Amino acid sequence: MAANQKADNRAKERAEMLRQIEAEVLETAHWLAKDKLDPRVMAAMAEVPRHAFVPRMEDAYAYRNEPLPIGLGQTISQPYIVAVMTDQAGVGPGSRVLEIGTGSGYQAAVLAALGCEVWSIEALPELAEEAARRLKAAGYAKVHCRQGDGARGWPEAAPFDAVLVTAAATSIPPALIDQLKPGGRLILPVGAPDGVLRRNASQRLLRIEKGHDGGLTETVILPVAFVPLVSPPQD
Question: 121: closest CA among 152, 100, 92, 90?
């Protein structure tokens, strides 16, 4: 009875999280050029148990529409941002997606719930190991994880339908463009890591679309505040 009640409580929390995402999408519709996200993306957000991807000490806050610390100066992204990035990637069942910055594994889980096969790279060994464990425990078999330098991508698994970068880069890593399929999309925040609130942030979330002729089209999606993209520790 207690277990069923707990599961029900979590379902209610997820429903409230979705309501808050929908409200924030409406508030930022002038940036997004839409007032609703793809229903498939929202269904994936409803399906993934975010509490399985936060540290135990943050469990009570798992479904708040805000970023949470996961250790080593890193965060699990705000659910609204995860939903927007997934929506902007334009992916679905059968899509091949590269993620740079596994973090806790939550964004990768949302992509997998959408039907994508995901290759995810995390620079920090401790986070890479923990994320792989969490994803395996939650049953996301189509997420492949490794520790390494995300700026180099995952060339042996390329090309990808989409690349999502979940930390702010100061410039666009050329390898990620090279590993993107013609017609694919790169979603990443670019800018200095000094923004605290989105309305004051100096970073911009970009959508880079690669044409079939190799040309690139850049669109600013939102002002954002992400932790910086880090390099793997040196031996």
Answer: 100
